[in-house]
Inverse folding.
């Protein structure tokens, strides 16, 4: 066994995660030499796992038991509350950016039409 509980390692600590990954890699390398069929079976299971993740279009952390806090109902509730609290800012940003973009486009078209009309009148007045 890796000794996660023995060493009191925390999966959120990057140093601990590195040490755990190194021990897992050493164990897999040792098993590859001694028990090659077990490693082949592990490779097939990993390929199937990641293929299923891609098929379902979900991330690994959603099914990782160590990241339960990210998928709890309370976290969903907090995110929903934050959505409603900050939605006025989002709407203000939309009005402040999208509407001037669209209105400037319409004003530019009207201005070009007006400019063309003035040019035509100027051209016609030059004829007379």
């Amino acid at each position: 066994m890796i000794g996660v509980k023995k060493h009191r390692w925390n999966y959120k600590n990057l140093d601990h995660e590195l040490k755990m990954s190194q021990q897992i890699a050493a164990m897999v390398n040792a098993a590859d030499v001694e028990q090659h069929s077990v490693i082949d079976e592990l490779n097939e299971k990993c390929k199937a796992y990641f293929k299923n993740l891609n098929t379902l279009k979900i991330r690994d952390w959603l099914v990782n038991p160590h990241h339960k806090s990210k998928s709890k109902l309370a976290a969903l509730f907090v995110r929903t509350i934050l959505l409603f609290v900050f939605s006025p800012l989002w709407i203000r940003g939309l009005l402040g950016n999208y509407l001037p973009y669209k209105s400037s486009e319409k004003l530019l078209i009207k201005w070009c039409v007006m400019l063309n009309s003035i040019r035509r009148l100027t051209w016609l007045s030059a004829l007379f």
